[in-house]
Design a protein that fits this description.
Layout (H helix, E strand, L loop, with lengths): L2 H17 L16 E6 L4 H10 L4 E7 L3 H10 L4 E3 L2 H8 L5 E4 L6 H10 L3 E4 L7 H13 L1
Parallel strand pairs: 1-2, 1-4, 2-3, 4-5
């Protein structure tokens, strides 16, 4: 075998392994660019169900939780002991806004728009349980903010 042909074949073989996707080689690593970082407000009750569905995929990581009722949120807190916790969603907003891609709101109906709008104004995606708003004015305000952003 000549040296030039050996070098060509070695380079081609090495390049093939750098181009092959990781899932072909049996790896299940999710790169950070494919991960959705979510802050959750209202993590007890219905919020716990939404969180368990979101966490079923490897592509979602929770940044922080906010819930006013520690007793109802206990199961979620126990499931995710490393996630920061707040009783006031405004602290989650102040401390973790830059770390989040989206916010999940599963609070009582009359607070949905009040919680989601500040995040939406900062160009964060919002998942809000229905009913979306308490009245028509809030619905129109959310529609305007969504169209702007």
């Amino acid at each position: 075998m000549k040296r030039r042909s050996f070098i060509k074949k070695s380079a081609a073989t090495g390049a093939a392994f750098t181009i092959v996707p990781s899932f072909v080689l049996g790896k299940t690593h999710v790169p950070p660019s494919d991960t959705l970082y979510v802050g959750a407000v209202g993590v007890g009750g219905r919020g716990a169900g939404v969180i368990s569905e979101l966490f079923a995929t490897e592509k979602v990581k929770f940044v922080a939780f906010a819930d006013v009722d520690d007793v109802r949120a206990k199961a979620t807190y126990d499931t995710f002991p490393d996630v920061k916790r707040y009783r006031d969603f405004r602290k989650l907003y102040d401390n973790h806004l830059s770390d989040m891609d989206a916010v999940m709101v599963a609070t009582p109906d009359h607070t949905h728009a009040t919680i989601a709008l500040p995040f939406m104004r900062e160009k964060k995606h919002a998942y809000v349980e229905k009913p979306l708003t308490h009245n028509i004015y809030e619905a129109r305000m959310m529609q305007e903010v969504a169209a702007e952003m």
